[in-house]
Amino acid sequence: MDSKPVVLITGCSQGGIGHALARAFAASDCRVVATGRSKTTMADLEQDPRFFVQELDVLSEQSVQNVLSNVLEKFGKIDVLVNNAGVQCVGPLAEVPLSAMEQTFNTNVFGPMRLVQAVVPHMAYRKKGKIVNVGSVTVAAPGPWAGTYTASKAALHSLTDTLRLAILFIFAPHQFMP
């Protein structure tokens, strides 16, 4: 098995944070699995042999399972998961349609958790892995038109803290003993 770390990144559309992260990890000699809802938004990465480009809809359990199967078949491991995919939702809370709020939470909260739940068994079996959930500074200073987006990122921050504590408790329970 290749010793280079395998990094799976969601939300790698050109011009975004995920795309820049994919390039940075590749420059650091990692095997990068760049994902997005459409390969056309990652066409430049697909032309570069340093990237394994996959279509991934974080809202679909089947899509997540397909990508994980493809990655494990090709590389045999996932060392790092970067949950970067996300959507904005702008407008006053009293007027934002509930369907838009649901879509934001489905993408920004349940999407990352879908990936976490899919990859953790593999990482736990190997006793190795890192998960990065991309949050937002808006959680610390919410604006009047970003309530839904901010709330979704606050939920992701909370879930991430809980996951960190759960893993710490599993691997270092003595830190929780009196």
Description:
47% of the residues lie in helices and 13% in strands. The longest helix is centred in the middle third of the chain and has 29 residues, at 98-126. The mean pLDDT is 95. It is α/β, with parallel strands linked by helices and 178 residues long. It contains 5 helices and 5 strands, in the order βαβαβαβαβα. Strands 3-2-1-4-5 form a 5-stranded parallel β-sheet, sandwiched between helices.
Short description:
This protein is an alpha/beta fold and about 180 residues long. The chain has helices at about 15-25, 45, 60-75, 100-125, 145-170; strands at about 5-10, 30-35, 50-55, 80-85, 130-135.
Largest sheet: 5 strands, parallel
- Order of strands, main sheet, comes to 3-2-1-4-5
| Strand-pairing-aware structural class | alpha/beta
What is the third-level CATH name, the topology? Answer: Rossmann fold
- Helix percent band: 40-55%
Top CATH class: Alpha Beta
- Please provide the ordered H/E string of secondary-structure elements: EHEHEHEHEH
CATH superfamily: NAD(P)-binding Rossmann-like Domain
The tally of strands reads 5
N→C terminal distance? 42 Å
Secondary structure: elements and pairs:
Elements: E1 6-9, H1 17-27, E2 31-36, H2 43-46, E3 51-55, H3 61-75, E4 80-83, H4 98-126, E5 130-133, H5 147-171
Short descriptors:
single chain, 178 residues, alpha/beta, Rossmann fold, five-stranded parallel sheet, 5 helices, 5 strands, 47% helix, globular, oxidoreductase activity, oxidoreductase
